[in-house]
Amino acid sequence: QQLLRNCQKAKTTTRWIIDKNPLNFVHVGLIQRLFPDALFIHSQRNPLDILVSCYFQHFAHPNMKFSYNLENIVEFIYQYQNLMSFWKSNTQYQIIDVDYEQIVVNTLDKLNEIALILKEPRLQQLVDAKNGANEEHFVRTASIWQAKQPIYQKSIHRWRHYQTQLASVPYQKLQPGLSDGL
User: What is the pLDDT of residue 131?
Assistant: First the structure.
């Protein structure tokens, strides 16, 4: 309901809604029931980069309190991976896996692939990061400033800067990302 209210407030006529809330994976089944034609683009990233990113990001939402503790983040990522495996094993859900690292490195190629799947001809609007966050579009996110920045590669393998600090964190149960292992 909140998503629909936000779209109505934005008075958008777009066919696509991108909601990058990190908790959306929990609601795939509900979203599919509400929007039977829903297509989910699942951006997969190295789990250790997710771990570090969550830890350093201040989330205001009370459901994100787990992100203040490294062990809790590991458990969250583990549960997320299990639930996504469940959703993907059910053929009624249209889930497209995309490799976060490949999007960052080969942005145009990867967005072209996604545009073909979506049958979306307006690729240039997807590629132009500054255009993607202008007044014509409704950006409502904790990281709204990021939507206005050019795509950068600093977040790839960021976890390696903290290898020593992560040594005591039990991350071995996590599945590797699409690009590389742990």
Answer: 43
